[in-house]
Design a protein that fits this description.
about 10% strand; alpha+beta; six-stranded antiparallel beta sheet; endopeptidase fold (from Nostoc punctiforme)
Length: about 280
């Protein structure tokens, strides 16, 4: 049987469309200001952007469920994205340093080991609680918002394990970076970060994560329950954490370049609670 060139091209187009439909692919939406999300059934990997996302326009895809048929955790639209001041396309921010390099910016060289800290916890508990309360009192929010003022970073305490100091240093490194859905997923080194990209970067600075994870994947990070120094809250659409009692969250910021460190705690209902063993 002989086909004309036009007929052959038409058949190939039909076959391609049928293949895409069978794979559940969807064309991602695009936006120039706040990210727009369209449906997709392909699960993202731990170190890949959600389908269609970029770090310049904030465009992204999403799924209606948190897991696929194989039970693999998937990223869905962040329900608190509008509260995170998504960056417009005009925002051009320099890329962050590697998390490990950011984690080296700790102020307490020769910090006590985890074992030494644990052996002294009972004696130090009252002192630490008092110091933590005083630290919170020193945090001043941006007028009209919850983000802390100043340069957007918090002091790195000397009386916590070194790994916690490194997580704080990593969080400080990108505290005032813009929010873009999918930012920080393809690589730790990016110029904008969403909620899970932000938490992943800070945890990686402390050596607690080897690749970026989505908020759904962070539901399985570490072990269940709150930690003494680091507690991660995650669900299919959003994640944040408390480090040494201070909230680190993209939702609730006071502007595009406002800090992710915030003065007031948030409502933790509806989130899986995780921590790293002994932290």
């Amino acid at each position: 049987m002989t086909f004309t060139r036009k007929a052959t091209a038409a058949i190939m187009c039909l076959l391609a469309a049928a293949t895409l439909a069978a794979c559940g692919e969807a064309t991602p939406g695009s936006g120039t200001t706040a990210p727009k999300h369209t449906a997709s059934t392909d699960p993202p990997t731990a170190n890949a952007d959600p389908p269609g996302s970029t770090t310049t326009t904030g465009a992204a895809s999403t799924s209606a469920t948190a897991t696929n048929a194989a039970g693999v955790s998937r990223e869905v639209a962040d329900p608190l994205e509008a509260d995170s001041y998504p960056a417009p396309a005009s925002v051009k921010h320099a890329s962050a340093a590697a998390p490990r390099k950011a984690g080296e910016a700790i102020v307490a060289a020769g910090a006590p080991s985890n074992a030494e800290i644990r052996s002294e916890l009972k004696q130090m508990q009252a002192v630490e609680q008092s110091a933590k309360h005083a630290q919170h009192l020193r945090l001043t929010p941006v007028p009209g918002g919850e983000s802390i003022g100043g340069n957007g970073t918090i002091p790195i305490p000397a009386d916590v394990p070194e790994v916690v100091q490194k997580v704080i240093a990593g969080a400080n490194e990108i505290a005032d970076f813009p929010y873009v859905y999918g930012g920080g997923h393809a690589s730790f080194i990016d110029n904008a970060y969403d909620c899970s990209g932000s938490v992943s970067y800070a945890l990686a600075a402390g050596g607690l994560l080897s690749a970026p994870e989505t908020s759904g994947q962070l539901e399985s990070w570490g072990v269940p329950g709150p930690g003494r120094y680091i507690t991660v809250y995650a669900n299919a659409g959003h994640t944040y954490m408390y480090v040494d009692g201070i909230l680190y969250d993209t939702a609730g910021r006071s502007g595009v370049y406002a800090s992710r460190w915030q003065v007031q705690p948030t409502d933790n209902a509806g989130y899986v609670v995780r921590h790293w063993p002994n932290l």
